[in-house]
Amino acid sequence: SFFGASSTSALSSGASSTSALYSGVSSTSALYSGVSSTSALFSGVSSTSALFSGVSSTSALFSGASSTSALFFGASSISALFSGVSSTSALFSGVSSTSALYSGASSTSALFSGASSTSALFSGVPSTSAVFSRVSSTSALFSGVSSTSALYFGASSTSALFSGVPSTSAFFSGASTTSAFFSGASSTSALFSGASSTSALFSGVPSTSSLFSRVSSTSALFSGAFSTSALFSQVSSTSASSLGLLLPQLSSLEFLLPQLLLWGFFYLSSLLWGFFYLSSLLWGFFYLSSLLWALYSGVSSTSALFSGASSTSALFSGVSSTSALFSGVPSTSALFSGVSSTSALFSGVSSTSALFSGVSSTSALFSGVSSTSALFSGVSSTSALFSGVSSTSALFSGVSSTSALFSGVSSTSALFSGVSSTSALFSGVPSTLALFSGVSSISALFSGDSLSPQL
After folding, report:
1. Where are the transmembrane segments (predicted)?
2. How many angstroms separate the Cα of 66 from the Cα of each of 134, 171, 191?
3. Helix, strand, coil share of the chain (percent; to 5)
4. Residue 195: Cβ within 10 Å count
5. How far apart are the first and last CA of the chain?
């Protein structure tokens, strides 16, 4: 059951389990918390965990055979539906509205963040990850056979999520904008930096690398079997092209006229780029107006989501709130702390390391087959949910409120924490118990094989 001051609703269902309010064979967990209203539904055969935190309303539903994790936060409204056989993860953040649907055989992950609206759909056989960040609106799609990685960064906050079977490492640091992400079966690297907005898409079997930098807006898509590299840099609009390997002699006018015509064409195209630049200025005006309506978006918050075949993890961090969800088969551990905001998480089958540092907030999430650990820190609120088959451990600490719930195969755990209220609901196969608390209204229903749900 979902209802709140704003409105947030989400429903997720997978091959093994189906949940509407909440119902699962092994575990079902849900946590609701937020200033206005926050609702979440989780259900899975092995383990399902979710964390939700938002100023107005945040809702998410995750369900999968193995593990499903998701984090949602946004100023106005964020809704998402996720369903997959193995794992499904998604991140949504936007000033106005952000919606996404993900579904894949192994794993599907998506990240959305934009001042106005950003939407994306990702689907791949092994893993699919995507991140969106732009002052006005930026959308990108990433899909590859082996791995897909994406990094988003902003002037205020920087967040990154890494997950891979062998190893995944990432380093983020920048006062204004500097980000880098590396991942893939062989190698996949991408660097994005731009004053206003920068978007890039990378996909390739062995390796894919690209560099984007532009004052106004730059978008690119790269895909190749072996390697694809590109460099873009433009202040307003500048275009140059080599017309041929063997240029004709300039002394001959009959050869010079066609070249002059071509250069005139490029000049006219540069005028069109100037028109798009002016339109981007209009987008900047809408962005400034949207700042009045949003606490988390674009420059203020940056989020990234990465997911693999075995596990799915998502990390969100903003100036006000920071939330994270972790889930793994053997063990799951998490540490949360924040005064300003600095977080780092390392995990993976072999090794996974990540360092994040930003002006306002920095967050990182790592998840692997063996272990899953996470560190979250935020100025206002910090929340995390951890669940695993063998063991589950979590440490939560925040300025305003911090809540945590742990559970295993029989039970279901969910942690939700917001600036005002913190509530948690736990339910397993034999028994069902629920705790509800919220500033406006928080309701949740869980039911197992023995008991029938009642609210």
Report:
1. 260-278, 284-306
2. 33, 29, 32
3. 10, 40, 50
4. 15
5. 9
The pLDDT confidence band at residue 296, using thresholds 50, 70 and 90, is low
Phi and psi (nearest 5°) for 88? Answer: -145, 130
Structure tokens at 237: 């609009």
269/133 Cα distance (integer angstroms)? 27
- Rounded-to-integer distance, Cα 381 and Cα 400, Å: 5
* Helix ranges, 113-179 (H): none
Q: What is the pLDDT of residues 30-58, one digit of tens each?
A: 333 333 333 334 433 333 333 343 333 33
Nearest to 148 by CA among 159, 134, 169, 162: 162
Distance CA 189, CA 400 (A): 37
Specify burial of residue 65 (Cβ count, 10 A radius: 0-12, 13-18, 19+).
middle
Long-range contacts at 422-429 (CB < 8 A, ≥ 24 apart): 422/33, 422/383, 423/31, 423/32, 423/33, 424/31, 425/22, 425/29, 425/30, 425/31, 425/32, 426/29, 427/22, 427/27, 427/28, 427/29, 428/27, 429/25, 429/26
**Model confidence over 141-179: pLDDT tens digits?**
333 332 333 333 333 233 333 333 332 333 333 332 233
How does strand 167-174 pair with strand 37-44?
unpaired
Contact predicate 26/410, CB 8 Å = yes
**Chain mean position to CA 186:** 23
**Tally of residues, the chain:** 455
Phi and psi based region of residue 200 (left: phi greater than 0; alpha: psi -120 to 50; beta: remaining): beta
> CA 69 to CA 321: how far, in whole Å?
18
* Cα–Cα dist 188/454, whole Å: 49
Cβ density class 152-162: b for 16+ within 10 Å, e for less: bbbbbbbbbbb
Specify the 3-state DSSP secondary structure of 204.
strand
Q: Which residue has the tokens 């704003």?
A: 6
Each residue of 217-244: pLDDT tens digit? 333 334 333 333 334 433 333 444 444 4
8 A C-beta contact, residue 58 and residue 74: yes
Hey, what amino acid is at 140? A
